[in-house]
Design a protein that fits this description.
8 helices, about 70% helix
């Protein structure tokens, strides 16, 4: 059961956060205080991110909402990367652990987006599922590569 602890904690955090309305999750007041001087505004103004049927940019949304958008998408990426790692380590060194962790995380992301569509002020987004799955692929991929490198290093040290 200890192996599943991180995975379960990540799921609880996901359930709590996806149950919150946009207004409850908004960090705009904190960003306005923390980033009052609008650091990197010129560099961020270059970014134009296709999302849904629109393009998200500083020009289109304004500096603070754009930074919040980036933070929210980064949170998706990292959060689901952690869910994937929790599932990967819980599954153990069994065959297809990486595949199961990534596919399982993608499935959880789809369920979460569907569930989120019932939360006021929130919408279901296939693009968020892609961001979530990309986080799972990158996080699990890094661990798999690191483990293989470590294993190769150990094998070379034995000879």
């Amino acid at each position: 059961m200890k192996k599943w602890f991180i995975f379960i904690i990540c799921l609880v955090v996901l359930i709590i956060s996806s149950s919150m309305t946009y207004e409850q999750q908004s960090i705009l007041p904190e960003l306005k205080d923390l980033l009052a001087n609008k650091p990197f505004e010129k560099q961020l103004s270059v970014l134009k991110i296709p999302y849904w049927d629109t393009v998200v940019s500083v020009e289109e949304r304004g500096y603070f909402p754009f930074v919040e958008f980036l933070i929210r998408k980064l949170t998706h990426f990292v959060g689901f990367g952690c869910i994937a790692l929790g599932l990967y380590f819980a599954w153990g060194r069994r065959r297809f652990a990486a595949t199961i962790a990534i596919a399982g995380t993608a499935f959880i992301a789809m369920l979460d987006e569907f569930r989120q569509s019932f939360t006021p002020g929130r919408t279901m987004s296939g693009q968020d599922v892609l961001v979530d799955t990309a986080g799972a692929i990158i996080f699990v991929g890094v661990v798999v590569v690191f483990r293989k490198l470590l294993k190769n290093k150990r094998q070379k040290a034995q000879y």
